[in-house]
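As the next step, I wrote out a protein sequence along with its fold in token form, included below for the reader:
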Amino acid sequence: MTEGTTTSADAEAGDTLTRLEQEGEIAADYLEGLLDIADLDGDIDMDVEADRAAVSIISDSSGRDLQKLVGRDGEVLEALQELTRLAVHRETGDRSRLMLDIGGFRAKKRTELSELGAKAAAEVKSSGEPVKLQPMTPFERKVVHDAVKSAGLRSESEGEEPQRFVVVLPA
């Protein structure tokens, strides 16, 4: 292959990035409109992480206003993420896996859940017995599954929503 020639895989990767960037742009416009309607201050940051668009609303002040958009245990954040995904779907016709974070809530939660998964994995390694965790959202379970996997163990989700939970299993 000559220099400067692109393969179909390169073109497909570029198309995916462009599509994810487009999702981020649509989401940012939608969220800016919501912030204006709610008369809240916040800056919008867009990125592409793990093959999905990631949009964050970050506070340029105390962040107390943005807490309203997170809600108790992230319930409002989850709803806003779904609404944002629907707005992207309406514009593109494609289902979006976009992740929304507000005021660093998900980033902080991801750190806490990674530690929980690692701790549960260590407990299973020492006891040899499975460990059942508390019910979690799909996002939370995914973070725990990833932490358990990186600790060299496996895990499964059991139960029905909204009481679905992670079970960490011995090797």
The chain has five helices and six strands. Strands lie at 43-49, 52-58, 99-102, 131-135, 154-158, 165-169. The domain at 108-169 is CATH 3.30.1370.50 (Ribosomal Protein S8; Chain: A, domain 1). The first strand starts at residue 43 and ends at 49.
